[in-house]
């Protein structure tokens, strides 16, 4: 039986130092039935020419040149032209193991899953010792188990780039253009559309940590997009996965504390008040019912109680104790 075509979408922007390493790791896959879509997102360096050169070297590579629109816009553009039965994403400063897609494909087929995910190793440009981002172990998760794992950031993490997806369940779900933390807006919707999710701990993805990346930048108020995404997720869960709503609300409140801590430490005082009021508004919009607190642990209840009384106090205490940052 013919193997399924996998479309691999690679957004490209100002990564000429890393692009060859990334593309080489994809075209060198043991799984060869690939369509590699390089999306030049209006990159101002040599990346557009590098993409075209790669297309001449390998007939499986197609290139899209477009006006700069950001990571989400580039991924959406790649999905629009993709022909694969399955879709994967790779960020252009990262690279993948030679057998990543072979492993993801085989486990997806064996488990009859709509999503498969492998192990991720974080590798630092500055020489910091590498470490695993993902859990150790293998499992097959039902839709509800996968959603819980995403909320708890356990078996399933937010990023899309170390997973393989059934194209039918994702093509109608666009990434939000112009938002930071676009994966947080997208991933819960995809899991909600999926059936089963397979997870293996075989290291397939190498996540490059560099100072010039978006996530390597200093904290800014754009990071509050993650809270907006979690609010959307909370509303979705209330309607579709009510048994997980309390756990997700707890995650939302703790995320508000984390961002409050960062705001008090790293944002200029003139901008702190409005940002903290935004976070307080989120908390007010998603209150805990008294009986739902029984699902939470003792430490969680204590922190949430302090946060409910005063978000700023909770953040200052956690900063003083070195908790959460």
UniProtKB/TrEMBL annotation:
The keyword GTP-binding does not apply. Signal peptide: none annotated. Keywords: Glycosyltransferase, Transferase. Its EC number is 2.4.-.-. It holds the Pfam family Glycos_transf_2. Residues 7-128 form the Glycosyltransferase 2-like domain. GO terms for molecular function: glycosyltransferase activity. It comes from the Bacteria. Gene3D superfamilies: Spore Coat Polysaccharide Biosynthesis Protein SpsA, Chain A. InterPro entries: Glyco_trans_2-like, Nucleotide-diphossugar_trans. It is an enzyme of class 2 (transferase). This is Glycosyltransferase. It comes from Fusibacillus kribbianus.
């Amino acid at each position: 039986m013919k193997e399924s075509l996998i479309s691999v979408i690679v957004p490209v922007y100002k990564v000429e130092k890393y692009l060859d390493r990334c593309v080489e790791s994809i075209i060198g896959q043991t799984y060869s039935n690939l369509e590699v879509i390089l999306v030049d997102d209006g990159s101002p360096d040599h990346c557009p020419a590098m993409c075209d050169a790669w297309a001449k070297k390998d007939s499986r590579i197609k290139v899209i040149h477009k006006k700069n629109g950001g990571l989400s816009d580039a991924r959406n553009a790649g999905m629009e032209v993709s022909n694969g039965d399955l879709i994967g994403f790779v960020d252009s400063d990262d690279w993948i193991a030679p057998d990543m897609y072979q492993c993801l494909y085989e486990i997806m087929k064996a488990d009859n899953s709509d999503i498969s995910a492998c192990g991720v190793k974080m590798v630092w440009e500055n020489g910091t010792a590498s470490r695993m981002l993902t859990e150790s172990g293998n499992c097959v998760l039902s839709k509800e188990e996968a959603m819980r794992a995403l909320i708890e950031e356990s078996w399933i993490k937010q990023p899309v780039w170390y997973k393989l997806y059934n194209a039918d369940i994702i093509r109608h779900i666009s990434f939000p253009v112009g938002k930071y933390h676009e994966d947080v807006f997208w991933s819960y919707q995809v899991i909600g559309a999926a059936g089963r999710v397979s997870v293996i701990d075989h290291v397939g993805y190498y996540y490059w940590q560099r100072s010039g990346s978006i996530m390597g930048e200093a904290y800014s108020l754009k990071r509050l997009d993650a809270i907006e995404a979690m609010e959307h997720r909370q509303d979705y869960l209330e309607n579709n996965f009510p048994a997980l709503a309390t756990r997700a609300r707890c995650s939302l409140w703790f995320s508000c504390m984390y961002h409050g801590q960062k705001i008090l430490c790293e944002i200029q005082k003139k901008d702190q008040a409005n940002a903290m009021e935004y976070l307080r508004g989120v908390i007010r919009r998603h209150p805990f019912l008294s009986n739902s607190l029984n699902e939470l642990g003792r430490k969680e209840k204590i922190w949430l109680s302090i946060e409910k009384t005063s978000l700023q106090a909770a953040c200052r205490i956690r900063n003083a104790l070195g908790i959460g940052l």
